[in-house]
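Continuing from the previous page of notes. For each protein in this section, the sequence appears first, followed by its C-alpha cells. Read the first protein now.
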Amino acid sequence: MGRAARVLLAAGLILLMTAGPALAQQDRQPVIDLTDFITLQDVAAWADRNGDSIPDIPQEGPEGDIPEGIAGIWDDAIGALTPEEFLLRVDPEGTGFDLEEEGAYLIGPCGGAAMSYDANGDSLDAAVDLGDGNPPIDIYGEPAFTAGNPFQVDSGGTVLYFGFTLPDPGLGGDAFHDHRWEMVIMGVSADDGGDPNPRDKNRNAGIMEMGDLLPFQFQAKVKAQGVFVDRWGPAELPAYTADDVEAVFAGHTICFGEAWVQFVGDSYPLFTAPGALATALALAGFSGILFNARPALSWRA
C-alpha cells in the first residue's frame, strides 16, 4: 500500500506550509490524543521535547521505529528514468486543482493521522482524519489542511503517518483489493502504484524523509490530492478532477482527498506562483521527486 498517497488520503496523502500552528498554539489544550492513532509501540514511546503534545523523533539511537514495508506490485518504485519522462509528469499550470477552494476534505472509507518534523526531529504539525465524513482537524480540533491552516512540512525534515481502512459495503469488508492509487502535488505526479492485497491489509504506517527524497529544499504553499481506487487492477488511472472523481470511477469504491500543505524553512527559497515550484523541480532534477523510495509497512488489524 502506497506511502505518499496515504499521507494525503489518511490525513490525507496525502498529500503539503510559516512555521507551524502547532508551535504557535503550545498554550492551547489539545483535544486529540495522537496515541490513539499511533499503532507502533516504539513511536508511542517517543518523548514530547517542545511541549506541543506531539511526540518528537529521538535525536539519538537507531531509527528502527517503523520497519520498511514491501512495495505493492504495481508501485512505481523506480520513477522517471530520463528528464523527458519526468517532464511528462509536470503540469506547471496545476490543471485539475481548484485553487479558489480553500477547504480540505476526504471522502471514502479511510482515515488516519500525519505528523511532521523539522530537520532536527522536532515536531511542526499534526493532523487527523477520523474517517467519520467530517473534514480533517489538527490536535486542537481546528480544521486542518485548509488554505488558512495548511499542514506544515519542512522540505528538509520528515513526515510520519498512520492510516486505516474502514468497513464499507462497496469493499465487501474493510480492505481495498486490486487497487490503484496516486498522489499529485500541483500537477506534479509524485507517486503512484497499487496491489492485489490478497491478505486484506487495512492498516499502514510510513515515514518520508523529505530531505533525502526531494532534490532541493524550498518554501511553498501548495495544494495536493490523492485517490485510492478499489478493484481497478494494474491499468493506469485516467484523468480526473475533484469535481468528477466519483463519476470517473463510478462502480468502484474510492478514497479521495484534497489538502493544502505548506513547505516551510526560513533559509529555503520561496516559490509563490502556482507553476514555479513544478518548473523548478523539473529543472533541478527528475529523480528526487518520486516518493516511493521507502515502502510503507502494511498489515491487517
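Done with the first. The second protein uses the same format. Note its length before scrolling.
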Amino acid sequence: MEIRTFAPHFMKVGILTAAVQELTPRDVRDGDPDRAIEDWITFARELGADEIQLSAALHPSDADVPPEAMLDPVANTLDLRKPFDHARARRVQAALAANKLGISDLGYFDNMLHHERAIREKKLVFMRRVFDAAALLGVKAVCGFVGRNQQRSMDQNLIDFEEVFVPLLREAKARGLTYRVEQCPMPGWTTGDNFHNNIAYTPGTWIALHRICEKHGVGDQFRIHYDPSHAILMGQDTRSIFQYLKDAGYNFLVGGFHVKGQVIDAKGVAAWGYGGQTVERGDWSGGQPSARPADQLNAWKKQTVLCEHELPGTARHDPLAYLQNRTVDWFDHQLAARELLALDVANTPLVVEHEFPKARVQDRARLKPILEGSIAFVRNIDRAAACMFALQHEVLAAQGISAQGAGRQAYRS
C-alpha cells in the first residue's frame, strides 16, 4: 500500500483586459499605446490576479463592426496599428516584472472566415501581428475564434477552414504558438437566421476541425479555450462535454478556460426556446436588415432573450439550476476538469471574463471590488476542487479507500 502525500495543484487565475475597455483614456492611449497595457498590469495586480489575458482588436477607427452593434465591445488594450517591436516588448515585460504578473495569452476575437475577401484578409493580417507580438513577449498561446463564412453551409465551412485557417495555424506553428479557440457560437454576429456563427462551437466540430489540422501537421496548434457560459446557452453541461471528449479520445483538446457564467431565464426559454428570438427583434426594417448599427445590436436577442452572462460569484447558489443546466456549477466545473481532461493543471489558465451586463461599468473605482471579489471566488473554488480531487483521487485511492456517494454524473440532469 502506497501512502501518498496530499499535494493539490492549483490553476493560475487571470483576467481578460476587455473587462474595462477604457481603463486608460482614449486620448492618452492613442498617443502612447503601451500605457494601456501598463495600466492594466497595475490594475490586475491590485485585483489579486496572477496573469492577464491581453486583449487585442482592430482600432475603432479601422473596425468593420461599429461598437453600437456589439453586445460586448472588444478592447484593443494591445494596440497594433504600429508594429510591436523589441522596444515595446521590453517595456511591457518590465511592467510585468515590476508587478510580478504574467500573460496567459493574447486574445483577438473576430471572424477569421468572413465571406468578404478584403475584410477577411484585414483580419488575417491583424492576427499575424498578434502572433508576432506574442512571440516577442514570450507568450505561448493566442486565443480567438474561427468564425464562419455566412454565404456557405457548415459543411462548406470545413473547406473554408482548411483553405483559410490551416495556413494561419502554420504561421502559429512557425512562431511556436498554440491557437486556443473560444467556443462561443456568436449568434448575434448576423441579422440572418444563423445561430452558429463560429463553427468551432461544440465538441463535435472541435473534433472534425482537429482532424483537418492533423492531416496538415498542425494538430498541436489547435486547442480549445473552454467557456462554460456558451455550453449553458446551448443546453449543455460541462461535465458531459468533458466526458464526451474523454470517451472520444480528445480530452487533450482543452488548453485553457474562460470563467464566465450564464444564467438562463426560464420565461425566455418558454417564449422562444433555445435559439432565442427569431422574429420582430428590431434588427430588420421594411423586410430588409437594418443599416443602423444600433438596430443590428438587436440580432443578439437570439441569445439575450433567454439568458444573461454571469461574472463568477455574482449569481446565487442554485443547486436545482445546476442540475437543469441553467447556470454554471463552478465547483463541479473545476472538479470535472481535473477528473476528465488531460491537463497540466499548474500551467492551465483560468481567465475571468467579465460580461455581466448590470456591472459593465467603465468606472475603475466601482468595478475594482466587483472584479476583486470574482477573482477571489474563482481562486477559492478552484482550490476547494483541487483539494477534493487530491484527497479522493490521489490520497484515498493510493490506500485503496473509495470516496463516498455517487457525485454528479455525465449525461444526466
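What the second structure shows: The two ends are 37 Å apart (CA to CA). Residues 364-398 form the longest helix (35 residues). We return to this in next week's lecture.
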